[in-house]
Amino acid sequence: MKKFLAGALALVFSAYVPGGMATAADDNYPSRQITLIAGFPAGSGADVYARFFAKKLEEQLKQTVIVDNKPGGLGSLSVVALKNAKPDGYTMLIGSADQFTAAPYVFNAPPYDPLKDFDYVAPVFSQAFMMLVNAKSPYQKISDLTKAMKEKGAKGSYATSNFPSVILAEMYKANTGVPDTLQVRYKTSADSLNDFASGAIDYMVGDPVFGLARSRDGTLRVLAVSTAKRISSVPDIPTFAEEGVPNVDVRIWWVLAAPKGTPKAILDKMHKVMTQVTTSEEARKFVGTNGGEPMTLDSPKATLDYATMDTKRWEEWAKIGKIEKQ
Fold it and tell me: What is the pTM of this model?
């Protein structure tokens, strides 16, 4: 009888301690505005994605969801801001997962541990990269470009604007025997357009948001996508393998992440809501128009497992891309 009373009293008491109140708060989540940190400039192609998904989350959650742009440091400034945020579910980050998973191979002294300092909520979508040339160039296929680059040798040049594009460019050269042509780094893909127009740049590896937009307006031509299979939303664009360049499968993925220690109930709810958003017909159409494909995983734990795999993959990619730590 004494044991029963003690247990009953413990249950009653637990309802009044902070842990009990936290559970009640979790049940009412979200009760106020949510901030999504984004590691890219307002108005950029990536920002368009972030604001689209913020709006869709807002509709599902019936609460205001804003985007807080924190560009700089190859995305690290935004991730540090997330790391330092209160783990209450009201500050999260949406963006490319390589801001997290590439950090150990990009920075000499990474300001965060991608697997220990964060809780991964859910994937958002995956995205290939594209080989691009001036629409007025004579290059109709990868083989045309490869032949020309072998003839040009060191006089050839190409543009990159981020680490995935550097990696894909190195894979292309390694698998075709193209010599070390001049790499020109730009802050954004759009910054390369003047050099493309003047003929100073022979080719570029870019993201599909930029590549498809410039292809549709007649500025650039897309020669291939970096995935093992064609992208369902743009099935007319061949893969590198189909163009005679083997061993190329490079894609990035976007993720919704939270500060470490965010309550499990909140992570589970946001995973469920994010999955509902990403699998909606509107999201499929939006992502597909920009060359991406919806991506889902079963749980926050499965998302962490995928991030763990991605971190190992970046170790290999960093070697292929000859990336020097900063």
Answer: 0.83
